[in-house]
Amino acid sequence: MSLPEQNPSAAPPANAEGSNPNLTFLLVLLVVLVVVLAGPFLLGRFQYANTKARMQAEVEVATNQLTKVSAKLNDLSLASRLVAKRVSPSVVSIHRADMQGNEGQGSGVVVDNEGYIITNYHVVEGATGLHVILADGRVDYEPIVVGGDKRIDLALIKVNQPDLIAAEWGESDSLEVGDLVWAVGSPFGLDHTVTFGIVSAKQRRSMTGIQSNPFQEFLQTDVAINPGNSGGPLVDLDGRVVGINTAIVGQVYQGVSLSIPSQLARETYLKLKEDGWIERGYLGVEPHMLTDLRRRHYDLKPGEGVLAAKVSSLTPAERAGLRAGDVILKWNEHNASDPFLLTQAIADTPVGSKAQMLVRRIVQGVPTDVDLEVTVGAAPRLERLTQ
Where are the transmembrane segments (predicted)? Predict the structure, then answer.
């Protein structure tokens, strides 16, 4: 009897054709680990390549654009160099000492060939000794203090030196906000430092951190001004003096510098050169803006009148019959609408002259216009400039 034949394919061994579950699991785990570990690196490389390509494109675009505008940028750079060369020979450094032995320094600008130099009042105020260093290195140890006006912080000194180069006056009234301006001076004793900026505002009358008077306006710029710049020139694109640098607004206001407009500085220079001091008209009244309530009480329209908040005794205002609480409507032919402008108009009126003043006051409960004639007095002179 023979055994039946065996079919080798009839009963294959277990897992002969299938995969090992453990091996599959390990392979999947390996793939996951590769993705988890290498994924961020690959993603980072992709992002870096993408960012680099974008930045490279930006560099190429910027390079092309700069090529097109470089001529204009070079023109601006050239303008700065030319402005510095034009005005620097006229800028001086002023060194001072006082009775307490304190020393200080400021700047100034030569304004004519006779040796007159304009600077800030506070640079020379109370000084017992002064010497001036010219742009070419010459030193004048005996400058003459011609005079000054503390109210607007300007002074005039004179040196006895030949061959001076005077700066040219510009027109501050022609400046517009955004115009380019340069400052030259000696901040922290660094002679002939040039800084650059724009006109930020005009007719700046008062700000926290500065002292001003009722008839002074400033040019506001973002030009870097530091101790030692005081009295130096602010110049325009033509290198002409459009202001005298006088103040920075505290330590917390960065980029806020103030300059006396050249129109006022030039007028002051001419008066000081002729008379040695400034004589301004004086009334003896403290002018205030009208509130809406008071304006209605006096039956006035917006923009009409300036309140006489206080009238000092023994002054031209009191002698003319002006009373506290009156509203000034006119000064000569000028309509009064702003305390600042009214004070300017009074200051510009010749001392000793007669001025006509129209005021409105309440008479028996009724707003009544009154004409007054006033003899203009002289503003009290302040303390001596030097010891």
Answer: 23-44
With beta carbons less than 8 A apart as the criterion, state whether 151 and 382 touch. yes
User: Which amino acid type is present at position 192?
Assistant: H
Domain range 281-378, CATH class: mainly beta
The three-state secondary structure class of 338 is coil
Mean of pLDDT values over 119-132: 91
For the question of whether the overall pTM of this predicted structure is more than 0.85, the answer is no
Is 122 catalytic? The answer is: yes
Mean pLDDT of all residues in 36-52: 68
Question: Is 192 annotated as catalytic?
Answer: no
Query: Taking the domain 172-266, which CATH number applies?
Result: 2.40.10.10
Question: Residue 1: its pLDDT value, please?
Answer: 46
β-partners of residue 258 are 220, 247
Percent over 70 (pLDDT), the chain: 84
* 230 is known as an active-site residue: yes
pLDDT tens track for 148-158: 988 889 999 99
Which residues make beta-bridge pairs with 204?
Answer: 218
Q: Which of 140, 149, 153, 236 is catalytic?
A: 153
Catalytic one among 107, 230, 259, 262?
Answer: 230
DSSP H helices, the chain, are 21-87, 121-124, 262-275, 292-297, 316-320, 339-347
| Dist. CA 342–CA 331, nearest whole Å | 8
CATH code reported for the domain at 90-158 = 2.40.10.10
Which pLDDT belongs to residue 89? Answer: 95
